[in-house]
Design brief:
heterodimer; A: mainly beta; 7-stranded mixed sheet; globular; B: mainly beta; 6-stranded mixed sheet; 5-stranded antiparallel sheet; 53% strand
Amino acid sequence: NAGVTQTPKFQVLKTGQSMTLQCAQDMNHNSMYWYRQDPGMGLRLIYYSASEGTTDKGEVPNGYNVSRLNKREFSLRLESAAPSQTSVYFCASSESRVNNEQFFGPGTRLTVL
Amino acid sequence: AQSVTQLGSHVSVSEGALVLLRCNYSSSVPPYLFWYVQYPNQGLQLLLKYTTGATLVKGINGFEAEFNKSQTSFHLRKPSVHISDTAEYFCAVSEMDDYKLSFGAGTTVTVRA
């Protein structure tokens, strides 16, 4: 099992450019999540998907959109990148809401110039 | 939303010494509690979790944590750290009927030879 995979690992964008971060999991989990990690702030939830076909906003959704393509895949899109979106982005998945152990991908380091 | 406070953003300890990382949460109802570890340039992985039952929880790599309901705390400790324990540690909580996690800001542990 690969667990949770993310592409790309690194990306540099110019202000105003768009891009999509890809995430896939092979653990047959229902729930998937996108976080951003900034120094001194821990992880903050951007969007989540409780199950295939549903998405909801998290703590910091502005400037992002998501798509739950199928049960395996959950993508994060930046339509018009801003320097404030420079961060490390993590995708995670979990089996159920009861014990909510989340499994994390390796992250995407994004720099917006 | 839950508030999670980790005291101390950085801890430096000698190899073989005890390390204690503090975590306090805001909920009046005992939530699910987690400690995650992030090694340099990697994603997060679960160290241990508390759901119900015994308040002392043992995790991987010799770590343990104690849930204290009256002090709303979930402190993590390891009696004798190794160089390989150098990493960032995150405390996280979720409500029992909610699958979203709230993370603390993280504590970076540096183990000196």
